[in-house]
């Protein structure tokens, strides 16, 4: 049986893990390029602060969140740039303080939502748990960019359960981002946790399957590693194609990572 984990407690712990990556950086460290083209470590934290600000607003002020979305530029890239701009205007120390304050506010807002209540989000209302999982996915992906930029290894924990589950919930995103027809049935995901525990997600009756380390699935779906550098196995043609297009986020896929760009992850 898959372990039960508190997504909000894990969200807080994952936020601390990102803090540890950047807390001791000097000005040169904040200006370090990351694998995301044109983005430094500073851009990565500004993006996380922006996303967590959106999540707080969605949880604490649904009407204000909906009104805010209507004011955003229609272009995805322009909306992201606009959201990051006020954070990038801060010097690194103030940016870090702002990130910590925002993270704490977002956690309080999510904790205050009654179980089962949905909140508005970018496409449709979702349960608060799923919004927290989306936050975990952001922390995992952008935390990986920061670590890769700084040349720091990461210790993966079973907190990735939430990212893996979110990936299984959003398996259609890669097709939708590219305007490709979505297969009529999803996949089974048979994964191994960092602790060695077996995890199962997705449609248990699905004929096609993706299997392998849970960390590898998270790296693939956040597009922080190329499938060729991961130990994932696809059973079935649709599952095999999915490994090329998987993404657990809305918006353009981006260029992803090149084969061999990084060493295989340590599980």
Question: What's the helix and strand layout?
Answer:
Elements (H helix, E strand, L loop, with lengths): L6 H16 L4 H4 L10 H20 L1 H10 L4 H13 L3 H20 L6 E2 L6 E2 H23 L10 H9 L3 H6 L9 E5 L5 E5 L6 E5 H8 L11 E3 L1 H9 L22
Parallel strand pairs: 3-5
Antiparallel strand pairs: 1-2, 3-4, 5-6
Which ranges are low-confidence, i.e. pLDDT below 50, for 5 or more consecutive residues? none
User: Any guess at the CATH architecture of the largest domain?
Assistant: Up-down Bundle
The value of Rg in angstroms is 18 Å
User: What is the total tally of β strands?
Assistant: 6
What does this structure look like?
With 267 residues, the chain is of the alpha+beta class. It has helices at residues 7-22, 27-30, 41-60, 62-71, 76-88, 92-111, 128-150, 161-169, 173-178, 214-221, 237-245, and strands spanning 118-119, 126-127, 188-192, 198-202, 209-213, 233-235. It folds into two domains: 7-154, Up-down Bundle (Four Helix Bundle (Hemerythrin (Met), subunit A)); 160-245, Nonspecific Lipid-transfer Protein, Chain A, CATH 3.30.1050. The strands form two sheets. A four-stranded mixed β-sheet has the order 4-3-5-6. A two-stranded antiparallel ribbon has the order 1-2. A hairpin with a 5-residue loop joins strand 3 (188-192) and strand 4. It is globular and about 50 Å long.
């Amino acid at each position: 049986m898959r372990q039960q984990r508190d997504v909000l407690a894990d969200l807080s712990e994952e936020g601390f893990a990102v803090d540890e990556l950047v807390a001791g950086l000097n000005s040169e460290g904040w200006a370090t390029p990351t694998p995301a083209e044109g983005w430094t470590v500073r851009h990565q934290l500004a993006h996380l602060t922006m996303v967590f600000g959106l999540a707080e607003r969605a949880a604490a002020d649904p009407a204000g969140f909906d009104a805010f979305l209507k004011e955003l530029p229609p272009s995805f890239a322009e909306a992201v740039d606009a959201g990051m701009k006020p954070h990038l205007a801060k010097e690194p120390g103030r940016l870090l303080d702002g990130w910590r304050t925002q993270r704490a506010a977002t956690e309080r807002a999510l904790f205050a939502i009654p179980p089962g209540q949905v909140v508005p989000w970018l496409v449709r209302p979702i349960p608060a748990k799923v919004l927290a999982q989306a936050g975990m996915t952001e922390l995992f992906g952008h935390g990986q960019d920061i670590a890769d930029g700084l040349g720091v290894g990461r210790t993966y924990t079973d907190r990735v359960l939430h990212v893996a589950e979110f990936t299984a919930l959003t398996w259609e995103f890669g097709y939708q981002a590219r305007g490709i027809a979505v297969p009529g049935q999803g996949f089974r995901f048979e994964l191994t946790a960092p602790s060695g525990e077996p995890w199962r997600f997705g449609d248990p009756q699905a004929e096609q399957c993706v299997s392998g380390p849970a960390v590898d699935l998270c790296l693939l779906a956040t597009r922080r590693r190329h499938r060729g550098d991961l130990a994932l196995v696809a059973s079935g043609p649709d599952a095999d194609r999915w490994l090329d297009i998987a993404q657990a986020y809305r918006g353009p896929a981006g260029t992803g990572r090149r084969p061999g760009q990084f060493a295989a992850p340590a599980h």
